[in-house]
Amino acid sequence: MTQKATLSGVIFRPHFKTHQSLAIGRWFREFGITKITVSSLTAAKYFAQDGWNDITVAFPVNLREIKLINELASEVRIGLLVEHSEVVMKLNQELKFPVDIYIKIDTGYHRTGLGLNEMPEIIQLTSLIEKSPLMTLKGLITHAGQTYGAHSADKVISIYHSSTGVLNEVKQKLGKAGESLILSYGDTPSCSLVERFSNIDEIRPGNFIFYDLMQLIAGTCNFSQIGGIVVCPVVAVHPSRNQTVIYGGAIHFSKEFLALDGRRIYGQLVELDTNGWHQPIPDAWLVSLSQEHGILEAPDQVIRNLHPGMIIGVVPVHSCLTANLLQGYEMTDGEKGDYLTGI
Amino acid sequence: MTQKATLSGVIFRPHFKTHQSLAIGRWFREFGITKITVSSLTAAKYFAQDGWNDITVAFPVNLREIKLINELASEVRIGLLVEHSEVVMKLNQELKFPVDIYIKIDTGYHRTGLGLNEMPEIIQLTSLIEKSPLMTLKGLITHAGQTYGAHSADKVISIYHSSTGVLNEVKQKLGKAGESLILSYGDTPSCSLVERFSNIDEIRPGNFIFYDLMQLIAGTCNFSQIGGIVVCPVVAVHPSRNQTVIYGGAIHFSKEFLALDGRRIYGQLVELDTNGWHQPIPDAWLVSLSQEHGILEAPDQVIRNLHPGMIIGVVPVHSCLTANLLQGYEMTDGEKGDYLTGI
């Protein structure tokens, strides 16, 4: 990803919301990364304490956290996302230190942000921000999350083109006020599948650090790129219904699922030995989760080899949510890794 | 629930897996409760440190935790669930202190346990347990989790009757070996809707401490019995699509959903003021969750009154998973409550 960003001449500001780990964050430093993205002020504080000092918080400003915003802004360079003039006015009153500001643009995902049909609001925002002594308008930012619903590489790439098109159109319509603004673009599917980034200035993928079953099945990654699995003990076997019960439930995997052939799938079994994990095992799926229990359904010859007390490996559907639940990592060599402390 | 258990002459051994809180556990002491159920050895240890000394771990024995089992068994009375003779044989080799044993019976949920068609295995288990010097066979235990899929009180009550029927039939078929065994029965829907418990000796409901939207819509509880909501800041409003973005996502609520009129529902908005929360607001639903974002969809007049910086209250779909994610409580009077430390 670093190479691709360099070749395209864009800033690579990886999103740390998937791993939320200081240990993994340090791997990025080895690739020359100095700017990062996080999804909460708590995470910004966590990474700031480890020496990261240029952090974009890619979530709409939560006015109830103004104290934490000021605390962080006094120590590091913080980028905030805004989309409401009332939020900008309130920030203007309460800020005590300088911050970078990005206007959130909705390029089709319709979760947050202002769209092309809301140019008057965008223009009003730029002028409010420009008047504020402590806010520097840095850019326009978007997350084209609709790529997660695209089920082909072509569709993802087409969303990338239309979304970056919207960003450029907004910038153009801002005229002189838009000239110096950078265009920041997120999402792992786009950043994985697009070979050359043009028309944008910054990319912020996050999930690609681990990928997961969702990305694998969507064709965004291949199996060898998957960077994390969940290791679970077998606690019961039921060969008569081709099922095994594992100690791995909703509080470990999350209830995120994929719909495959009319079934809900929460993970896929992989080969696991003392050297780590290998190929996925065909037709061996985690098909049900309750609080602590997971039900693994697999062909007869797979189930017959599982016994209570053994451990198995499962690729989770959505690594961001699974990492958040497990709150830590173990490398295949036994080294432990941290996960963000606090919510 | 305590009154109902007393009137029926059954042991009330509440499941603490929903709240996982020492503070809330102490409320049960005021009702004379001395025996509890938990879903992990970690939880057993957590509650043992607060003086609970008769704890059933209602999850199949995880042989990889034998050290923790011995540690707990040296300090308190621990009940373990078994369903495999190989697990019993391994326990027999490794146990250093006495434990109570319950055989897990599958009365129709088909998650764990042995069914009526597996009497030879059940008989083999009883004889293995009886021969073990440190294991005392205490009873037959079931969780009729299929009541969660029943969509009427009649159906829940009918499952209760068939499930307790299976328990009694297994006991009878065990003959002399079954005579002294207690029959332990779980699940909040049954224990909420059945007025008088007959044919069983112990109940283990857990979710009823908070209930949630799932139970409300299933008719297991009424709104005034709901004991916990999630309080979230508003971070963006989009009146043009009747939506508000809240700081409350999958890492706060969990991805558990209800299918209502073809939509996925992750929570319902309630009236909230400084005195706590009141009535649910009609047609005001949490309709989408990503990692930190929640999308609330509501009628025009509701959305018009929401502004960034305000806080709102949402009844979660599944309180067990939401409590697990939020890792703590705040009472309406401001008092804080703990949640289990560790996974």
Question: Care to describe what's here?
Answer:
- Chain A has about 350 residues and is of the alpha/beta class.
- Chain A folds into two domains: about 1-210, TIM Barrel (Alpha-Beta Barrel); about 225-335, Beta Barrel (Lyase, Ornithine Decarboxylase, Chain A, domain 1).
- The first copy, chain A, has twelve helices and 18 strands.
- Chain A has helices at about 1-10, 20-30, 40-50, 65-75, 85-95, 120-130, 155-175, 190-195, 215-220, 250-255, 300-305, 320-325; strands at about 10, 35-40, 55-60, 75-80, 100-105, 135-140, 180-185, 200-205, 230-240, 245, 260, 265, 265-275, 275-290, 295, 310-315, 330, 335.
- In chain A, the strands form four sheets. Chain A has an eight-stranded parallel sheet with strand order 1-8-7-6-5-4-3-2. In chain A, strands 9-10-15-14-13-16 form a six-stranded antiparallel barrel. The first copy, chain A, has a two-stranded antiparallel sheet with strand order 11-12.
- In chain A, β4, α5 and β5 (about 100-105) form a beta-alpha-beta unit.
- In chain A, α5 (about 85-95) packs parallel to α6 (about 120-130).
- The longest helix of chain A has 21 residues, at about 155-175.
- Chain A is elongated and about 70 Å long.
- The two termini of chain A are about 30 Å apart.
- At the A-B interface, α5, β9, α10 and α12 of A face α5, β9, α10 and α12 of B.
Keywords:
homodimer, 343 residues, alpha/beta, TIM Barrel, Lyase, Ornithine Decarboxylase, Chain A, domain 1, 2 domains, eight-stranded parallel β-sheet, six-stranded antiparallel barrel, 12 helices, 30% helix, 28% strand, elongated
